[in-house]
């Protein structure tokens, strides 16, 4: 299947059959998910695989969305605050710069402004690491004849407690995965791309 076909065929599936997803297939999909780019190749994404009926029921009730219970697999995607201080993160970036560009460590000096900016950016990058992998997973799933749906987390504290996330692990989103019960009744439409494009500057 061509990538463009997978992109066009993907839709948010909210009705799943009982057919189980083989574990090997699930692991292959996650492997492909992790081929996505990530900030400084940190792959700051971890996945909790949820197949237990009671756990899925909990999620369905929490989000008030029955397909969370119906889907054979739900993936809780998380990201980790693994570098507690900005200094730690800068160190990592220094090493990264060296490896990729062959720059000597003393050539990479962060300004105060950069440190401040990094504090803010760090959190945004973490989410992007996860998001990129989710899209990979969804497109790979299409190729394997599976369907998915991306869901936001509604009750962060509830999820943290229920799935025993450590303090530095942040829940990002849920993905339902399985075989569709029936084809979608309708497909969502997109805005004309010209409405979303700005050439060179916004206005
Ligand atoms: C961040 C995010 C949160 C979403 N949350 C939900 C959700 O809670 N429940 C749901 O059924 N779909 C959810 N979706 C799926 C969107 O509704 C869907 O992608 C959009 O309507 C376009 O339809 P399509 O995916 O079928 O092309 C979410 C998608 C994203 C990216």
Structure description:
The protein has one domain: NADH Oxidase (3-Layer(aba) Sandwich). Helices cover 43% and strands 14% of the residues. The protein is built from seven helices and four strands. The protein has helices at residues 3-9, 23-33, 53-63, 67-70, 86-101, 112-143, 156-162; strands spanning 46-50, 73-80, 147-152, 169-178. Helix 1 crosses helix 6 (112-143). The mean pLDDT is 88. Flavin mononucleotide binds next to strand 3. InterPro entries: Nitroreductase, Nitroreductase-like. It holds the Pfam family Nitroreductase. Residues 7-179 form the Nitroreductase domain. Belongs to the nitroreductase family.
Task: For the structure shown, list the relevant keywords.
binds flavin mononucleotide; oxidoreductase activity; oxidoreductase; single chain; four-stranded antiparallel sheet; Nitroreductase domain-containing protein; Nitroreductase-like; NADH Oxidase
The tally of strands reads 4
**Into which percent range does the helicity of residues fall?**
40-55%
pLDDT averaged residue by residue: 88
CATH architecture: 3-Layer(aba) Sandwich
Tertiary shape = globular
Percent of residues in β-strands: 5-15%
- Distinct bound molecules: flavin mononucleotide
Estimate nothing, just give the exact number of structural domains.
1
Write the layout of secondary structure elements.
Blueprint: H1 3-9, H2 23-33, E1 46-50, H3 53-63, H4 67-70, E2 73-80, H5 86-101, H6 112-143, E3 147-152, H7 156-162, E4 169-178
Antiparallel strand pairs: 1-2, 2-4, 3-4
């Amino acid at each position: 299947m061509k990538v463009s076909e997978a992109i066009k065929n993907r839709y948010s599936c909210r009705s799943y059959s009982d057919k189980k997803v083989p574990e090997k297939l699930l692991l292959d999909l996650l492997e492909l998910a992790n081929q996505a780019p990530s900030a400084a190749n940190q792959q700051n994404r971890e996945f909790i695989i949820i197949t237990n009926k009671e756990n899925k029921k909990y999620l369905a009730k929490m989000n008030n969305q029955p397909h969370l219970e119906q889907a054979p697999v739900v993936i809780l995607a998380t990201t980790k605050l693994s570098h507690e201080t900005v200094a730690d993160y800068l160190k990592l970036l220094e090493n990264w710069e060296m490896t990729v560009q062959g720059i000597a460590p003393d050539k990479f000096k962060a300004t105060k402004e950069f440190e401040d900016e990094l504090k803010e950016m760090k959190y945004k990058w973490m989410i992007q690491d996860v998001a990129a992998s989710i899209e990979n997973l969804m497109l790979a799933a299409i190729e394997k004849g599976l369907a998915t749906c991306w869901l936001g987390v509604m009750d962060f504290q509830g999820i943290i407690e229920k799935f025993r996330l450590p303090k530095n692990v942040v829940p990002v989103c849920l993905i339902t995965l399985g075989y569709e019960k029936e084809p979608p009744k309708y497909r969502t439409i997109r805005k004309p791309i010209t409405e979303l494009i700005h050439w060179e500057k916004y206005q």
